[in-house]
Amino acid sequence: MEISIIGGDLRAVKLIKLLAQDKNKIKAWGFENCEELLDFEKKNDNLKIHNNLDEALQNQIIIGPTPFTKDRKYICTHYTNQKLEIQTLANKIRDKLLIGGSVPAEILEQIETIDILKDERLVILNAISTVEGTIEIAIKETQKNLYNSNILIIGYGRIGKILVDRLTAFKANVYCSARGKDITWIEAYGSKSIEYEELNKKIDMFDIIINTAPVLILNKKRLELLNKNTLLIDVASAPGGIDFEVARQLNIKTIWALGIPGKIAPISSAEYIKETIYNIIKERNETIILGVIQGLTEFLPISSSAHLNLFPWLLKWQSMPDSFDVALHVGTLLAIVVYFFKDWIKLIVGGYKQVVKKEKTIEGKIFWQLVIATIPAGILSLILDKISSKIIGDNLNLKMILIAIALIVMGIL
User: Fold this and answer.
1) Does residue 394 surpass a pLDDT of 70?
2) Using only C-alpha atoms, what is the Rg of the chain?
3) For residues 303 and 307, what is the distance between their CA atoms, to the nearest angstrom?
4) pLDDT tens by residue, 88-98
5) Distance of CA 412 to the CA centre of its chain
6) Cα–Cα distance, 307 to 26 (Å, whole number)
7) What is the pairing mode between strands 61-63 and 47-50?
8) Is residue 247 a contact partner of residue 272, using CB atoms and an 8 Å limit?
9) Does residue 63 carry a pLDDT above 70?
10) How far is CA 289 from CA 9, 297, 307, in A?
11) Residues β-bridged to residue 5
12) In what order do the strands lie in the sheet with 208-211?
């Protein structure tokens, strides 16, 4: 593949090397101050580092940073003195595919974009890296063992859940603060819970407080109640959950640990991102191929649904959900409606006149024949669908055998 990579942190550096080692042709921008990549470029012909943005954007697939931006104006860059406005980049890649993490909504509306941080597997793997980095910070920045320390986790999302599990393994006294149904989940897993509303009563007992919620939880009032030796770690995205200025004034040690995966585990993070990108591109190509198959087979006297099941099975692709099959059929249905729109109007008008005005026309006759023919076909398909679901179930091989038999029979007929 030919890929352009624009900006990013140490994860992007490791990602470029991994992609180039996989024989992909890489054009990179925003790395002229990165000695690691400059040395790698000399040894690997698959990488070309550009100072000129237009030269770097010649490929159809563009990979941006993760996170894409911190200030919603410029993309994140760590190895260049140049600044690149998000809108400037968007204007230059209107006809290309952009892949990045936490891409702003206004960009999603302008160009074809895939946000890799919406991939659940990658998000979980990133959460694991974040948790390991957070624990590393907690160990380094305190003068106590985690064992038997009182630790409060604020928020019970992906990171919060993993933090509770890992810190409990250290035999720390772990509490988790949340609200609503999350409190029930915390208690269901045997952990100690504190509702947000009750925080003020117990907040002075903790040695370490780790915030994962991107809303202000530790405000001035709560910070004033803290033990001044408490270590605060905030891993939430902006604006974070701590009033950092008040914490500074109160001389409470506070660390806002953003971008942990790229700092403590850049190689692992790059590997996760690489596999996610490969899967995204693979699924995109498969979608295009299946769309072509649907478009060709729908208008031929063969089963398009059979071929949509058969091709992924033969090529060992992951099975597409039923909703995707429906979407493809809706697409071809819309194509037919648009192409024969005038004919459909004539048929509907003819059908209306035949019933209301008793005017017999060929269009009216065809319309009601279509309606009558559709009713038994619809009923029969519902019955057969229930029967086949009970017989076949999740047996993919049996499903393929039946499709093959049906195609052979119809071919003979």
Assistant:
1) no
2) 29
3) 7
4) 999 999 999 99
5) 46
6) 36
7) unpaired
8) no
9) yes
10) 35, 12, 11
11) 28, 63
12) 192-195, 173-178, 150-154, 208-211, 231-234, 254-256
